[in-house]
Amino acid sequence: MKKTLYLIGLISTIFTFLGSFFKLMHWQGASVIIIMGAFSFAFIFIPLLIFLKFKEVSFLFDKFIYSIGIALGTLLMVGFIFKLMYWPWATILMLSSIVIFNFVYIPLYFISRFKREELKFNTIVNSVVMFSFGNVLLALFDLTA
Predict the structure, then answer these.
(1) Which of 50, 59, 115, 129 is deepest in the core (most CB within 10 A)?
(2) What is the average pLDDT value for the chain, to the nearest integer?
């Protein structure tokens, strides 16, 4: 199962990269390649990842937290696709997923894992990194309009 996950991740990354390169060069087929890569990442790779995480984790609340994170990651990827393709609702999709990630998911993740002594250090580091990246993404939006 992990080999399948790696293969799907590699394929979706290659498609997304090639599609972006085609788009920069204004070549035909860029949109189709980007959509194939991003959708395979969002709707094949991420569900496989959550399936593997569910097999590893025994706590029900951790499964709930991972589910929220995976759903937000999928929503953000769909927002990226919409933004690249100039489709409507892109900003709303991306901004809502980033705000929920920063102010709902990260605190839930931190609270649920900080209590366990063996996870305390990794929880702090992961939370700081996630919050930093989330805030950098949030800073890229012009909220004055």
Answers:
(1) 50
(2) 88
How many whole angstroms separate alpha carbon 8 and alpha carbon 4? 6
Q: Is 92 exposed, middle or buried (0-12, 13-18, 19+ CB in 10 A)?
A: exposed
Burial readout 36-75 (b: 16 or more C-beta within 10 A, e: otherwise): bbbbbbbebbbebbbeebeeeeeeeebeebbebbbebbbb
Nearest to 22 by CA among 41, 37, 6, 4: 37
pLDDT at 145: 62
SS3 29: coil
Q: Answer yes or no: are the C-beta atoms of 130 and 106 closer than 8 Å.
A: yes
Model pLDDT for residues 125-142, shown as the tens digit of each residue: 999 999 999 999 889 887
> Cβ atoms within 10 A of the Cβ of 136, count?
10
3-class secondary structure, 143: coil
Quote the tokens at residue 87: 């489709």
